[in-house]
Amino acid sequence: MTATALGRDFRLLWSAAVSSRFGDALRTPALALLAATVTRDPRIIAAVTVAGQVPPLLFGLLGGVYADRWDRRRTMAVVDGVRAGVVAALAVVVALNRVSVPVLLVAAFLLAALGTLFDSASFALLPAVVPPDALPRANGRLQAGSAVAGGFLGAPAAGVLFAVAPALPFALDAVTFAVAAVLVLALAPAPRTRVRRRRGSVWSEIVEGLRWLRAHRTLWRLTLLTAASNLAISGIMAVLVLYALDVLRVPPAGYGLFAAAAIFGGLAGALGSGRLAARLGTVPALRVVLAGQTVALTGFALARHPVPGGIALAVFAAGTVVWNSLWASYGQRQVPGELLGRVGAAQRMVGLLTAPLGAALAGLAAAAYGTVPVAGAAAGTFALVTLTAWRTLRSAAPGVLSRSGVA
To answer: Is 255 exposed, middle or buried (0-12, 13-18, 19+ CB in 10 A)?
Structure first.
């Protein structure tokens, strides 16, 4: 199936997402390059990166509340319009050669904070755009488009554009945000996209979303499994370049090609996620995906050559994208429309909490014992996650609510 078969509104939403992702892929490396022109202090450069990573943890649940309070289509358009203005202002500052560390920190933080509201509204809007049984395919197409726009087009172009003129990638990013805002506004304002205003406090609405997630047995288990998986994924990604160079003997000039294996794998997974869900069912497909990822990561940990290592990495990345697509689709089908923003934000928050811990543990372990044990530990973690999934999801009824938590 193509994006066309999913309808006009999905084509608009898909185009907006791809446009925005292309701009993100231009801005992210350009921001790092810009920071390196301001200072060579690695602590400050790292701080710019952290400034873009902290807001989802600080404001993710809050973004979910307002995604449920406000009209989601208009919220996405306004957020993209504001982000276009922020990046355009940054482009002007760069063009005038007035960049400073505080400017970089504020820009990175503000764009990421706005992104938390956009992500919550986007997650909650999709079920109003496509039929429920098309959600796995729609999520897969969104991830596929983002992979192409970001991995194959935006990221390679960022360095070239920055070399031509440092302000150019930021100016183009502002254009992509503006285009995305116009495309989202063109969506039909169907009744299902309108969300009634709630009168409770922000905190009470956050708690309501968390309680709903905790009470849904299968969705809560999937969220915890995602968090456990992210512990291993973050760890292996933190040392990937060292593992590739030192263990797999990837030549430095070929590392870009090696890393591209993950992009190709992710694209294949995105395109195949809908078919897999249609054939097996969403929850059974998620269990199979975890088993496949465990085999792939074990092969990666045992590989000592770039070719089998690259193939294993591609298969593992494909599984990651399939998991993300189907996990999102399952939640979008199960959660009531008025709670989609908050529950989706809670899912992402819990799922991402382990990522910093995984990266930190991997860095410490690699410094003490080398990168090979890190890959082995990641494979072992995935094996435990897979065994847990096959046990706890085996008898889980997708629509059943329970207060018992994880078995």
So the answer is: middle
